[in-house]
Every structure is written in structure tokens, then in C-alpha cells.
Amino acid sequence: MAVTAETLRIQQRLNQAINRIVDAQTRDLVRAWVDAWTELEPDLTAALLEQLTAGDRVTRAQLLRSTRLRKALTAVADHLETLVAAAGVRMTADLRDVIDLAGAAQASVIDSQLPAGSDLLDDLESWSRVDDRQLAAIVRRSTEQITARTRPIPAEQYQLLRRELIRGVAAGTNPRATAARIVRRSEKRFNGGLSRALTIARTETLDAHREGARLGRMEHADVLRGWQWVSALDVRTCPSCWAKHGSVHPIDVFGPDDHQQGRCTALPLVKPWADLGLDVEEPPSLVPDAGDRFAQLSAAAQRTVLGPARYDAWTAGGYPMDGWTQRRTTDGWRDSWGVSPVPARSRTSAPAA
After folding, report:
1. What pLDDT is stored for residue 240 in this prediction?
2. How far is the C-alpha of 264 from the C-alpha of 97, rounded, in Å?
């Protein structure tokens, strides 16, 4: 397998380009949520203070009858609806770009694995002829997924925030401190919608990128034998992705189907040069081995990756790397590979000395 240094550089540049798009989405969504809360917070605080300073004790029923609080909650609901609608528009705006970026890059990644001067890949512009209906179908599917997953956010977060506001409303010796504490907790509920939106944005954008890469691979199926799962192999890489790194899959299969917000990529693999009729010595692949790379980490870094229980089970020999991953089905999401639990028999095993 002739995965060269140039192959890895091209793939890294592609990953960086996609990450810039996702980072821009993140900044825009965070800014919108922060601005919305900044606008809402004074009215919520004032509505609470109005009740907390009205008597010795405020009941939930009294709080819910507050006209001012009802207006503030209506504003919260309206802002959540607006935020989610805008988030959906923001996410879908990038879909065509990330699909084109991924699809067009596949030819360069493939070409970097062939001998210099080879004419086996003589058409680096093939992506420009991909059927536009295929691209539109990817955008449509991703848009539908974004819409379906963001639609429940406003109602869910509104109810959580409303419950937070009416929980523990008894006035203390300092109504302002009480109101501030309740509003701080409510802000966390409000921002739960942001967390969900960010997860959806990153996952769907990366999945659209992966589907674009799959189409790009198919344009050069004659020289490919599959694609390889490549993970970052750093302390931020989850155990499942460490375990999946290096596995090889058919070229037409979507992937990597890692967990939500996963950073793994699909690296197209050229067929052995001998199978392509090339009488040239083929260099070894430069894709690092996950086991070797993990062994090079410090014990502290290994523990960071695995967590204490998994690390102890691994050092005791009861949790090998190929057992760090399992297929998961999550309602509302595609199937994915996630971290497997420590086998029960390993939980009581003493760690290696």
C-alpha cells in the first residue's frame, strides 16, 4: 500500500479545510445563543425579583401567575424557535461546499499513491462531471436530518428552563442573590439547545463530507481496493476510534461511521501496484499503526484516553485494543461505532504492576 507522506499531507489539508468550516459554524451558533441570552436575561431576572420581593414566600402557583414572567417565558420560547430555525439555515449553507471539497480531493489523494509519471489516473477533473442529482440528494438528505433533529430543541429546552425557573423559588434573605442563582441555572438549560445544535451541525456536516468523499472514490473505482479508517491517534481520540484505526472497507461503503462529532476520515487506498500492472517496487504505507502509537504514549496519556477503569483493565490484559469498540444504535441517529464497556470479568482484575 503506497500511502505516502504526500498522501497524508493532502489528507491533513483536507481535514483542516473541513474543520475551518465546522469551526465557523460553531462560532456563529455560539454567538447567536449568547446574544439571545443577553437579551433575555434582564427580563427574567426582573420577573423573578418582582415576585421574590413581594412577600415572605412565593409559591410556584403565584410565580406562574406572574404576567411579567409569562411574557419573559414567551420571549424565551420565541428566541429558541428563531435560534433553531437560523441554526438549520446556517448548517445547510455549507453542505454543498463540504461535499465538493471532499469529492474533488479524492483524485489528488489517490494520485499521490501512484508512481510518479503514472498515467493510471489521467483525469483529475472527474469530480466536475459527477451527476448533480447525486449531489442534490446528499444535500437533501442532510437537510432533512438537520431539520428532524433540531425540530424538538425549542420545546424541550423551554420546558427545562421553565421548570428551573419555578424550582425552589422561596425568597431568602437576599432576593437578588436568589434570582441570580435561579437565572444562572436557567442559562444552563437554555444553552442545552446550543449543545444539541453544535452536535448536529458537526455530525451532519462531517457526514455530508464523507458522502462526498464516497462519490469521489467511486469515480476512480478501477484503481482502488477500498478505503482505510484513519484516526487522529492523540489524547482526544476516543478508545473506539483508536481500535477502528487502520481497518479497511469497500470503496462504496459510507464511512467512517464513528460516533457523533467524530473526527475520523476515510483514506482511499490504491490497489497494489502489481495488480495495476506496474512493474515498480511499491513503498510501504506510512499510515501509523494504532498499537505502536498507543504504546509510545506516556502512561498518563494512555490513562487519559481510556479512563481509569479501562486503563486498569487494559494493563491487566483483560481489555485489548480490538475490544475497545462496539456497534451502537441510537434513536434518531445513524448506527455508529462507540466505546465498549469494560468486560465484567475485568472489572475485578488487579492492574498489572
Report:
1. 97
2. 19
| pTM metric for this prediction | 0.87
Pair 244, 258: CB distance under 8 Å: yes
Query: Going edge to edge, which strands form the sheet with 265-270?
Result: 248-249, 224-230, 265-270
Could you state, in chain order, the average pLDDT of each consecutive group of 10 residues for the chain (353 residues)? Answer: 90 94 96 97 91 72 82 95 96 94 92 85 71 90 93 94 79 77 92 95 94 93 95 96 97 93 94 92 94 97 96 95 94 89 68 42
| Grid cell of 262 as nine digits | 467524530
What Rg value do the Cα atoms of the chain yield, rounded?
A: 26
Work out the burial of residue 181: count CB atoms within 10 Å of its CB; fewer than 13 is exposed, 13-18 middle, 19 or more buried: middle
Per-residue pLDDT, 225: 95
Q: Write out the three cell numbers for 92.
A: 445547510
Eight-state DSSP code of residue 117: T
Cα separation, 215 vs 222, whole angstroms: 14
Q: Could you tell me if residue 261 is left (phi over 0), alpha (psi between -120 and 50 degrees) or otherwise beta?
A: left
Q: Do 168 and 58 form a contact (C-beta atoms < 8 A)?
A: no
Cell 467511486 identifies what position? 218
- Residue 234 is predicted with a pLDDT of 96
Report the candidate in 306, 288, 310 with the shortest Cα–Cα distance to residue 298: 306
C-alpha span between 69 and 257 (Å, rounded): 45
Residue 245 and residue 231 in contact, taking contact as beta carbons nearer than 8 Å: yes
**Which are the contacts of 295, defined by CB distance < 8 A and separation ≥ 6?**
none
Q: Is the dihedral of CA 270, 104, 144, 34 positive or negative?
A: positive
Q: What is the DSSP string of 280-291?
A: SPPPPP-PPPHH
By CB neighbour count within 10 A (0-12 exposed, 13-18 middle, 19+ buried), where does 144 fall? exposed
The rounded distance, in Å, linking the Cα atoms of 157 and 196 is 10
Name the pairing type of β-strands 265-270 and 325-328.
unpaired
Beta strands in the chain (DSSP E): 224-230, 248-249, 265-270, 325-328, 336-339
